[in-house]
Amino acid sequence: MSEYLLEMTGICKSFSGVHALKNVNFKVRPGKVMCLAGENGCGKSTLVKIISGVYTKDEGEVLFEGKPITKITPAEATKLGIQVIYQDLSIFPNLTVMENLAINSEITAGKKLVNRKRWEATAKEALSKIGYNIDLNAKMGELSVADKQLVAICRALLFDAKLIIMDEPTTALTKKEVDALFKTARQLRDSGIAIMFISHKTEEIFEISDDVCIMRNGENVFAGPTAELTPQQFTYHMTGRELTDDHFIPKNVSKEPVLKTEHLTLKDKFEDVSFELHKGEILGITGLLGSGRTELALSLFGLEHPKEGTITLNGEQVKISNPIKAQKLKIGYVPEDRLTEGLCLQQPISDNITLSSLKRLSNAIGLIKNQDILDDANIWKEKFSIKTDDVRKFASTLSGGNQQKIVLSKWLSNDLDVLILNGPTVGVDVGAKQDIHALVHNLANEGLAVIIISDDLSEVVVNCSRVIVMKEGRIVGEMTGDDITENNILDIIR
Amino acid sequence: MLAKIKEFSSKNNYTVMLLALMVILLVFFTITKAGTLWTVGTWKGIVMQFPEFGLMTIGVMFCFISGNIDMSFVALGDFAAIMAVRYMAAHTAEGMSNGQVAGVILVGLLIVTVIGAIGGVINGVLIAYLNIPPVMATIAMQLVWLGLSTALTQGYAVTGVPSLYTEIGHMMLFGFLPVPLLVFIIVFAIAAFLLKFTTYGKKLYMIGTNVKAAKFSAINTKGMIIGTFVLADIICCYGCMLMVSSMNSAKADYGTSYVMSVILILVLAGVLPDGGMGKIFNVLLAVVSIQIISSGVNMFSNLNPYHASLIWGGLLILVLILSTKFTGGGFKLRKSPKKNK
Q1: Could you tell me the end-to-end alpha-carbon distance of chain A, in angstroms, rounded to an integer?
Q2: Looking at domain B13-328, which of 1.10.3470, 2.60.120, 2.30.29, 3.10.20 is its CATH number?
Q3: What is the pLDDT of residue B183?
Q4: Cβ-count burial of B229 within 10 angstroms (0-12 exposed, 13-18 middle, 19+ buried)?
Q5: Average pLDDT over residues A232-261
Q6: Contacts of B205 in chain A (CB under 8 A)
Q7: Which residues of B fall within a CB distance of 8 Å from A352?
Q8: What is the pLDDT of residues A287-327, one digit of tens each?
Q9: Chain A residues touching chain B at CB-CB below 8 Å
């Protein structure tokens, strides 16, 4: 028996001439948590798909429990004990927890009739493996992401998994849920199962992993115990450049507030919210999911309508009835979910960038020249270094960070007083994250008033000159300057 | 050169497919019925017939691009036509000058326009403000309009169309351009202009792709959807008025089969009800292709007329299979947005 559960050496894979993986080597030890880290597009997913048998490798050698494996198919991978929990979790949202847990083994066993007792037994057995309690008759689609994930893990364990691969499992989880997930992961690790955890979040990787394999541009640039690395080295390996943590210090904050809310109340969402926003500052609004932070932002953009309280803009009391009115009042909003709220993915980058400024680009009767759209889009492409060779390509062809830059340019091509960013770097890799932060700093220094809404505390700390903490719909704390630290915020939030 | 052609065909797969389809159809009918196909009469028939459903196709195309669907347009158009014909019949009399009759006809067309707009507003409000799924809302409205027409006419055809109206409808301008075709060309040009050169067209495609993102981009999505249904339904009502001129009457259930053929033509042209895609030029090609099939089938005079539907349907299935293969699968074309990491 080999020391390693899975050994991969010299793995190469190319798609129509483009190398996705170049000579990748890595090893997974049984009973350890191994992290596969890297920015978007570095080949992490391709590697996972080779392990699970979705793709076939071009070159290289794979050893599982010391035995060479020449051809992996998805069915064979399952038989070997490799289970992949993909980001979308591959669950049936319309079925119950019990049905989801039992269905795979029922099908594998070739059962044709439903026996409720047997299904229940299978489901209970699965849950008992990690000592997890949940209503077996709950509809899967109604569970939280965290619960869905645990059910998916239980399902994987039914197949005597030796290696569980989790593809970015923490993306949609709150801090508490991440802790719960990690606890389960450690429990599994201690029972001898190897866990491969795919992520690009530095803190999480240091918290959970024993070994780490860092990939960049299809090559693995580091493989070894996590303890050998410092977070700085880790980031360097991942991005290929040194990153510095600059705190944002506002240069010219206006005396008069540009935006002021007083006793703003939206039933069941937030209550008695009063704050001021000045030009040139970056105000952070943070709080847990459900603290009312998003609803507050939507109220400032005309998509929620608080019944009580007032919003004052440049000294004048205003009523923001819809986004069109917000745009007229020079308020821009970069939404939380870029894919469903921010972009028309299957449309050109250029049309996405200019969507909110068509009025400016057209003449009095609404005629518009395609060339004007392209020219305008190219200006933003240069300004924000959006990585594409042609702005006529679909927005879906870009990576998360570049997509976010499109959404930003869409609003910045309007003349704005206030820019609200809700989760500006969710799902954006480290390098692009820095770019976006630098961009926002510049905008604030040019006189824009910026609100960042985020539950990524490190982001809030690095970017905001003032922070408001919300809890259960109320403002529970405010801090400025050096008082803004993750610990201070956590003290209030919890 | 070859590379350029390749690039063009990969970007315009629907256009290439439809052109190929047209050539194949023409070659097929030339081989089998050269004598009948290449006559003035056949082509006159073709250009006289397609403007009716051609107009409706252009109208519904706007709904499709916006990510909606309209099932009510024929019923609405029939109702509008019935009201217009009733008005025209009541206000024309023997011995009126052509000028006077023309005035009555214009008022009739105005009635059609207003009813089309009302129908569009109702569809739009049901969908945009009351959030009823477009298929449901417009099927229900189809029944409402059909019911109104039937109640008004007891199911009989409404006659008394001024002869001037049918004469104009059958007129050949400059000896070769039938008036219905001219109407089609004008509407086509306006529609193409709207889609290509106006902010309305740009916004329409964006709304069709992701209405939520459009709303977050300060686009008046509700207004856009209502406006689009108004535009679409007015155009469809004019399509029904072309039917009036060829039938010399209006009836509650004229052209009901057009509902399905219009949807089919649009899908064939790559304008899918998912929204946000499709080119108007391809719609033109698809309209003409379908008309060629239909006229072609009619040329086989020895065919049992009771078998016509069967042959027509079989041919359509064949065309759809081939086109789906060639274009990479109509409805599957749009994948759900990819999850990003």
Answers
A1: 47
A2: 1.10.3470
A3: 94
A4: buried
A5: 79
A6: 344, 347, 351
A7: 206
A8: 887 788 889 999 999 999 988 889 998 888 899 999 999 99
A9: 40, 45, 87-88, 168, 171, 200, 303, 323-324, 326-327, 333, 335, 338-347, 351-352, 354-356, 358-359, 361-362, 366-369, 373, 396, 399-400, 403, 410, 427
